[in-house]
Write a sequence for this structure.
């Protein structure tokens, strides 16, 4: 359904990304990759958003590099310039979608979930954020500073983005007077990714999708 495009970063540079279009004037959603890269699964999520009525753009944060190997994925993630990805690539994607009309939200999985929290703090053009099992260090993006509508999806059997970390994010936001929607699932890290049979949970993934689209319909309404 979608295709690769180039879009402008705030610093004047260019970033590639996968754009799935629903039409001019529709709300937008930036889909942020897992540590595997901009693979077919993430492009499929963008396509799914387009079918649901959103212009969806998934920025290529690894500049064409994709892997299925955890060690290589960890190497790519640790080598990523997180501030640059947030302030330039993701913000540029949000601004590109905003130019098509409609409010724009940000969402992502794992590494992309952490970048979603960072974007909710640092990208002023974002109108909503949905995080799946990823939280950045508080010294980079303090969740207490999130002021836009925020929804989080976390797995109770997650040993990377742990339940304790999810509790900390929720407590920080509530202490700051925010009202985040936080959902927890009896599932493993990565439960939304249908390409990873060892962790995918179809029932939890569908429940999360339904909750997310209901949340975004309200948060991104004109």
């Amino acid at each position: 359904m979608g295709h690769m495009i180039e879009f402008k970063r705030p610093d004047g540079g260019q970033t590639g990304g996968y754009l799935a279009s629903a039409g001019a004037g529709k709300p937008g959603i930036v889909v942020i990759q897992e540590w595997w890269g901009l693979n077919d699964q993430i492009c499929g999520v963008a396509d799914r958003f387009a079918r649901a009525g959103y212009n969806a753009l998934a920025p290529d944060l690894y500049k064409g590099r994709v892997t299925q190997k955890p060690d290589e994925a960890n190497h790519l993630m640790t080598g990523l310039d997180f501030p640059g990805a947030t302030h330039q690539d993701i913000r540029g994607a949000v601004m590109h979608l905003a130019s098509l009309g409609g409010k724009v939200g940000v969402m992502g999985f794992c590494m992309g979930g952490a970048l979603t929290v960072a974007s909710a703090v640092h990208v002023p053009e974002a109108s909503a954020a949905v995080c799946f099992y990823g939280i950045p260090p508080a010294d980079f993006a303090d969740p207490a500073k999130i002021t836009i509508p925020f929804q989080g999806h976390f797995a109770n059997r997650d040993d990377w983005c742990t339940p304790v970390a999810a509790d900390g994010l929720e407590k920080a936001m509530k202490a700051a007077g925010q009202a985040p929607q936080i959902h927890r699932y009896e599932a493993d890290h990565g439960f939304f990714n249908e390409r990873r049979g060892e962790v995918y949970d179809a029932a939890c993934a569908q429940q999360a999708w339904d909750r997310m689209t209901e949340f975004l319909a309200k948060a991104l309404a004109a």
In short: The longest strand covers residues 14-20. The mean pLDDT is 97.
